[in-house]
Specification:
The protein has 74 residues and is an alpha+beta fold. It has a single domain, classed as Rubrerythrin, domain 2 (Single Sheet), CATH 2.20.28. Helix content is 19%, strand content 34%. It contains one helix and five strands. The protein has a three-stranded antiparallel beta sheet with strand order 3-4-5, with no helix packed on it. The radius of gyration is 16 Å and the shape is elongated. The relative contact order is 0.20. The structure holds zinc ion.
Length: 74
């Protein structure tokens, strides 16, 4: 019975995960728990910086983050 309970908890936890599709390479992106709108994440496939535009139930809309000019440090 304990095992069944654990499986149910696992299923519930996995359902609460956010999935999205990378707008750059179309790979499935799994968002970390507690991620918020306008947060910047990176695609594990193409390493692109992505902005979390909108979060809905189990999905999130992602857009490519604007390129950051690395001119600081000079
Ligand atoms: Zn990607």
């Amino acid at each position: 019975m304990l095992i069944i309970k654990k499986v149910i908890i696992y299923l519930f936890k996995s359902m609460s995960k956010l999935f999205s599709i990378c707008p750059v390479c179309d790979a499935q992106v799994v968002l970390a728990e507690g991620v918020e709108e306008s947060e910047i994440i990176s695609c594990s496939d193409c390493r692109c910086r992505l902005v979390v535009e909108k979060i809905e139930k189990n999905t999130a809309a992602l857009t490519k983050a604007p390129e950051v000019e690395e001119d600081w440090g000079e």
